[in-house]
Design a protein that fits this description.
Elements: H1 3-9, E1 22-23, H2 26-35, E2 43-47, H3 53-59, E3 64-69, H4 75-81, E4 88-92, H5 100-107, E5 111-116, H6 122-130, E6 136-144, H7 145-151, H8 162-168, E7 171-179, E8 184-185, E9 192-199, H9 209-219, H10 227-234, H11 239-248, H12 262-271
Parallel strand pairs: 2-3, 2-5, 3-4, 5-6
Antiparallel strand pairs: 1-8, 6-9, 7-9
Helix pairs in contact: 2-3, 9-10, 9-12, 10-11
Length: 276
């Protein structure tokens, strides 16, 4: 199906505010579905139906697809592009405004997320699922390459930050492929990457997720300050107490937060539980 022709026939106008950059290359679309490991047994959630090109590729393989779209102007386009796929349901709603129960009612069981995410809310959308209680097993998302680099950065590097720790704490992330910006239309300003996260909420024994998140946020509050200084600001402890805790864990008291791995943040948060 010629997606571009359907868009033209329906006089569709791209909305830059919604980050609409569509993929039409059939080989790339099929590769995304394959990279995501989608099978005939899978229920898939797609964020940002767009013109339905990726939705079609998913619908031809998956057991069922629930695709969420915020642009109501795409209704006539999708009525054409997805007409022959009864296993696909398009939900015109914003998942960022939906409760877990609302999403569960559309999915009914474990699911994979596969999406070409709008650039302007990439991190928000990823974290919507990563930090939820939804039964999501995997996320495979086309995102800005620079964001993918941050999500997969190693401790101690410039790209490493709080979001890196957040995703690493609950799964195993990797970049599956880098995609040139010319594979999209309209053509965006930057290249993209297909990022995959296999969810494993038991990866670490995080006894208090709220405390863990607070510890990570504190560590990256001011990157130029030492971890001890940042902990002093966020918790009911003095700088000396913070340094003692770090020394007790085997760290240099002058260490910065960006040097700690997700696993090390888990241990640190456990030591801070009496000062939360």
């Amino acid at each position: 199906m010629d997606i571009k022709s359907v868009l033209i026939a329906n006089n569709f106008h791209y909305n830059k505010a919604l980050g609409q950059n569509f993929i039409t290359d059939v080989n790339l679309l099929d590769a995304i579905v394959k990279d995501a490991g989608v099978t005939s047994e899978d229920v898939v959630v797609e964020i940002g139906t767009g013109a339905g090109s990726l939705t079609r590729a998913l619908g031809r393989v998956a057991k069922r697809v629930a695709s969420f779209e915020v642009d109501d102007n795409l209704r006539p386009v999708l009525a054409t592009t997805l007409a022959d796929l009864p296993n696909v349901e398009v939900v015109f709603a914003d998942v960022l405004k939906m409760s877990d129960e609302d999403i569960k009612s559309k999915v009914l069981g474990p699911f994979k997320v596969v999406a070409n995410l709008p650039y302007y809310i990439t991190t928000q959308l990823l974290m919507r699922f990563v930090e939820s209680d939804l039964d999501v097993t995997d996320l495979t998302c086309m995102i800005q390459k620079e964001v993918a680099d941050r999500l997969t950065a190693k401790a101690g590097t410039a790209d490493y930050g709080a979001v890196t720790v957040a995703v690493d704490a609950v799964g195993y992330g990797s970049i599956l492929r880098v995609v040139n910006k010319n594979m999209f239309f309209p053509v965006p300003k930057v290249d993209s990457a297909l990022y995959h996260l296999r969810i494993d909420r038991e990866k670490f024994d995080i006894k208090d997720m709220r405390l863990f998140k607070k510890t990570v946020r504190a560590a990256f509050l001011w990157r130029r300050k030492t971890l001890a200084n940042n902990l002093q600001s966020a918790f009911s402890i003095t700088k000396s107490q913070a340094e003692e805790i770090l020394i007790g864990l085997g760290y240099d008291p002058m260490i910065r937060g960006e040097r700690l791995s997700a696993e090390e943040f888990v241990r640190l948060s456990e030591r801070l539980k009496d000062n939360a």
